[in-house]
Amino acid sequence: MATYRRNRILRQSASIRSMVAETRLSPSDFIVPLFIIEGENTRDEIASMPGYHRLSLDRTIDEVRDLWTMGLRSVLLFIKCKDELKDNKGTEALNPDGLMQRSIRAIKEAVPGMLVMTDVALDPYSSFGHDGIVVKGEIVNDPTIKVLAEMSVSHAQAGADMVAPSDMMDGRVHAIRNALEQQGFTKTGIMSYSAKYASCFYGPFRDALDSAPGFGDKKTYQMDFANRLEAIREVQTDVEEGADIVMVKPALSYLDIIREVKNAVSVPVSAYNISGEYAMIKAAAKMGWIDEDKAILETLTSIKRAGADLIATYFAKDAVRLIT
Ligand code: PBG
C-alpha cells in the first residue's frame, strides 16, 4: 500500500544519507588541468579564472608533488606557446625540446607515478588560433591529422602516458593509434575528446593560453549544441578507432549527453568541467550569491551521477579538501 511507503526514512540523518548515497567522489576521479608557461619561479593568476594560475615548469613540478600528496593521480598538460613560435602548421608542437615535451619529461622524472596526459590540438601553436591547419579560410582535416599523429608520437617519446586529442578532426584517433603502433608505443593511451561541443564556455581557457581563434569560430569541427545523436556517432567512431577513454565536453550543459554516452559505450567516460563553468561558480561566490564549497561538491557530484567515470576539473584540489 502506498501509505506504508515512507521515502523520507532514508533521508532523516546524515548517517543514513551517507549510507544510501548512490554517488561518491574520490580523489582518483579527478584529472587536474595544468597551464605551463616559459620562465622560472612564475605564477600568474588567470584573470578570468580567479584562483587558477599559469605556472613555470619549476613551479609546475612543485604543484605536481603537492597533487600527488593529496591523492590526485592524473594531470592534463596545456602549454602557452610564445607568439613568435606560432605558425599555421603548428611546427613548434613537434619540437622535441618544446615546452610540452620538456614538461612531460620533467614531471615523469619528478613524480613517476603521476599519469601524464597531454592536450593534442594545434590551437596553442597556431598563428590562426585554430585546432587545425588553415587553407584559404578552411580548417583542413587530413593534413591536420598527420600533424596530430606526429605530435602524439612526440609526446609519447617524451614519456606521456596518454595523449588527449581535443581537435575534433575526423579520423584522428585512428591516425594517432596507427602512428603510435608504428613507432612501437603500444602502451600509450588515447583519451579522446569525442563529443566536444562548440561552446561559449571555453572563453576563460582561451584567455589563459592566448589561443582564441583569429578569425571565425570552431563550428565546422566542434559539435553543434543542438545535437545528441551526433555525440553517440562521435564516441562510437572514436572507440572503433582505438580510443581508451572518451570524453564529453563541456560538462554542465551536457549532463544528458554524458548519460547517453555512458549507456552507449563500454570504455570509461570522462567529462571536462571547463573553464567557463569554473568561472561562473567563482564569480557568483565572489558576489556572495552562492556558497562556493557547496557549489563545487554539488556540481562535481552531478557530473559523476550523470555517468562520468572521470572528471577533468579546475576544482580538483578544492574537491579533495572537501571530501577527505
Ligand atoms: C583546445 C582546447 C580547448 C579546451 C581544451 N582544449 C578550447 C577550445 O577548443 O577552444 C577548453 C578547456 C576549458 O575551457 O577549460 N583544443
Summarize the structure.
With 324 residues, the protein is α/β, with parallel strands linked by helices. Helix content is 39%, strand content 20%. It has one domain (23-323): Aldolase class I (TIM Barrel, Alpha-Beta Barrel), CATH 3.20.20.
Task: Give a written overview of the molecule.
The protein has a single domain (23-323), classed as TIM Barrel (Alpha-Beta Barrel), CATH 3.20.20. By secondary structure, it is of the alpha/beta class. An eight-stranded parallel β-barrel has the order 1-4-5-8-9-10-11-12, surrounded by eight helices. 39% of the residues lie in helices and 20% in strands. The mean pLDDT is 97. Helix 3 (99-110) packs parallel to helix 4 (141-158), helix 4 (141-158) packs across helix 5 and helix 7 packs across helix 8. The structure holds ligand PBG.
- The structural class is alpha/beta
Estimate nothing, just give the exact number of structural domains.
1
Instruction: Please work out how many helical segments DSSP would assign.
Output: 11
Instruction: Quote the CATH topology.
Output: TIM Barrel
Which hetero ligands occur in this complex? ligand PBG
Profile the largest sheet: 8 strands, parallel, barrel
Helix content: 25-40%
Beta content comes to 15-25%
Q: Mind telling me which CATH architecture this is? A: Alpha-Beta Barrel
In CATH's first tier, which class applies? Alpha Beta
Shape: globular
The number of E-state strands comes to 12
